[in-house]
Amino acid sequence: MPDTDTPLFAVVTGGSNGIGYALARELLDHGYDVLIAAEDEAHLADAARSLPGDSAVQVLTHAADLSREDGVDNLYRAIGDRPVDVLAINAGVGLGGAFMQTDLQAELRMIDLNVRGAVQLAKLVGRDMVARDSGRMLFTSSIAATMPDPFEAVYGATKVFLRWFAEALRNELKDTGVGVTVLMPSVTDTNFFHRADMDDTRAGTMENKDDPADVARAAFAAMMADKDKVIPSLKNKAMGAVADLLPDAVAAQIHRGLSEPGSGKS
Fold this sequence. Notes:
The chain has ten helices and seven strands. It is an alpha/beta fold and 266 residues long. Strand 5 (135-140), helix 5 (153-172) and strand 6 form a beta-alpha-beta unit.
């Protein structure tokens, strides 16, 4: 870390809970001031109170609907002129169920948040990073991006987009001082499955879910090492490698066993 009186600065979207909250804590532990952004102002306030800010580092909050263009613009304005050293594009939602039965408006909003909002924020903050020739971007994709995702068809597609968007961006920026890393977590112990209406799935009921703190530590280490991607834990690395090698139809059937409604009851 540079010798400066001003702490480094990180922005974490979706930072009020789950992996985003764990990323914020990890960055604070490494001496960053952190701005956490999410839609719910009360949740952000609760998160800020529980994060380990002190006289050396600060926790800042910004409430915005990042599925909307004006919400992302407002976040960018809130960042102001302060250089962003780390941008963790983590905000996202899921939705389980058969595509022909799920709510279209919920899926369109998911695309707006997971994809459009990520692209917009990466463009705005990334241009500033390139102008300074310094910065790191972390995109939270998913191990779901290694396979077709029945009963999470739209969610899985958004994570595929983030994976390859970030990898392409990394290649474009390889001769600059801006690093890009993709985080591809597996089943993690957050409220994701409840919010995605997947409590009754095998993935949702799984007992040995990954700890968000472990995911965040792996993500931070990979980002600082300028790795292209990170799949936390050996078992998940093996799962991702196998999924990449399997025929798509076989990989889709495996995912179906985890995500099909009612699969957690058998």
